[in-house]
Amino acid sequence: MHKQSLKRAVVATTIALLLAAGFVRAQSDGQILKITRPLGAEKQYNRTAPVAQMERDSAFARLHPERAQAERRSLGRVRSQANQSTAMSRAQAASAPALQSFGTGGGDIFEIEPNDSIAQGVSLPVNIFGEISFDGDVDFFAFPALAGQQITVEAFAARLSGSQLIADIALFDASGRLLDEDVGDEDNDPLLRYTPASNEVLIVGIADEDDFGGSAFDYLLNITRGIDVDEDEPNDRRAQDLPELPVTIFGEIDGRGDVDFYSFVASAGQTLIVDVDAEVLGSRLDPEINLSDPTTGAEFFYNDQNDGDDSRFNIVLPYTGRYVIGISAFNSNSTGFYRLNASIVSGAGAPLITRVTKISKKIFEVSGIGFTSGTVVEVNGRARNTTTVSSGTLRAKVKARVGDVVTVRNPPDDRRSNPLIVQ
After folding, report:
1. In the predicted model, what is the mean pLDDT of residues 277-305?
2. Is a pLDDT exceeding 80 seen at residue 376?
3. For the whole model, what pTM was predicted?
4. By the 8 A CB rule, do 405 and 419 touch?
5. What is the mean pLDDT of residues 351-365?
6. Residue (of 84, 52, 279) closest to 155 by Cα position
7. The sheet that has 271-277: what strands, in order across it?
């Protein structure tokens, strides 16, 4: 265990030094805040998960419970309180599987059965669409939790139109020990918050309070890292300072041209994951997001669509210092609420770019480490035709211009590298 920790530390230090050496920043006290949309930025719409049709107050219930307007769905949801014990307190916790990479974020996904004896591994932040399919069904999901980073587990069932589920959620450690539990009712959904003292694997379970199930017992389970933060306007000309990441920001794009900026400090070599939930919760906002250096105005990444119209990306940070995340509407006529999760995890396991070399007018080579079979070169976030020259060299066919941002990403989980700006 100590050898593995030392190895991770050496890798992280090496990445940080390479990044710091390869990225020179101007120093200024001013802020340059902008979102520049690359040409051809919009991608083909691709939503596989459904949309939970909610109003802002319902989607923001955990931040402002006093404003949430819960509605009784039907008399059929009213249950007798015959059971003295809860479904999850009676359940046998599932064992943890081999976990996915946790450097990408899971986005909007479906539960995969069977997940009752061996939990389904997920990457945070994640929205899981599932169903308690039969009487006594329990669904389990496992993920790595990081020391000192709060985990929030929020179930949506009472707030979903047509769902008959009265959600019972619980959190277990990898040994199956129950850490916490919360049960909803006909009008309200359960919520758990837990901060681990050390890095560990946690398992979340969800069931119906009375062990009922069926095709109408559907849910959305949101699991994130970090504390919750309310947007503080005005934040369009000067970025709103965030506490230490991770955080979930509850905000709104409320008019044509509205842009929200959020500032934070992080270290070179860490992986930043940014995930926006808007369309998935019923918002009319079509968001776009970027990451930039507020001192120079350099923009390191831009994303419009990933989960349907919702934006998401991961990237290795190129320097130690202050960054800004910007969010606005891709379609200038769209407005609405959003929940933006920004989290920091180790950069270990991500590819690293050390140099970009122009070979000809329309071809350049990318040098680095950590490339795998199928690694793809991106320019301004768009994949380009890529050929592997060697284990540490990729060749891309594209006419790169000064100021273009080059990254690479590895399949199958789309783990992304640090950005290099073409000079």
Report:
1. 95
2. yes
3. 0.90
4. yes
5. 92
6. 52
7. 227-230, 247-253, 336-345, 271-277, 312-316
Q: What is the pLDDT of residue 49?
A: 86
Selected residue with higher pLDDT from 17 and 358: 358
Mean model confidence pLDDT for the chain: 88
Q: Which residue has the tokens 């920091």?
A: 344
Q: What pLDDT was estimated at residue 64?
A: 83
Residues 365, 395 contacting (CB under 8 angstroms): yes
Contact assessment for residue 142 and residue 96, using Cβ atoms and an 8 Å cutoff: yes
Q: Does 2 score more than 80 pLDDT? A: no
Strands 352-360 and 138-145: unpaired
- pLDDT tens sequence across 39-79: 766 677 778 888 999 999 999 999 988 766 544 444 445 56
Contact, 344 vs 296, CB < 8 A? no
Angle at 213 between CA 207 and CA 217, to 5 degrees: 80
SS (H, E, C) the chain: CHHHHHHHHHHHHHHHHHHHHCCCCCCCCCCCCCCCCCCCCCCCCCCCCCCCCCCHHHHCCCCCCCCCCCCCCCHHHCCCCCCCCCHHHHCCCCECCCCCCCCCCCEEEECCCCCCCECEECCCCEEEEEECCCCCCEEEEEEEECCCCCEEEEEECCCCCCCCCCEEEEEEECCCCEEEEEECCCCCCCEEEECCCCCEEEEEEEEECCCCCCCCCEEEEEEEECEEEECCCCCCCCCEECCCCCEEEEEEECCCCCEEEEEEEECCCCEEEEEEECHHHCCCCCEEEEEECCCCCCEEEEECCCECCECEEEEECCCCEEEEEEEEECCCCCCEEEEEEEEEECCCCCCEEEEEEEEECCEEEEEEECCCCCCEEEECCEEECEEEEECCEEEEECCCCCCCEEEEEECCCCEECCCEECC
pLDDT of amino acid 237: 92
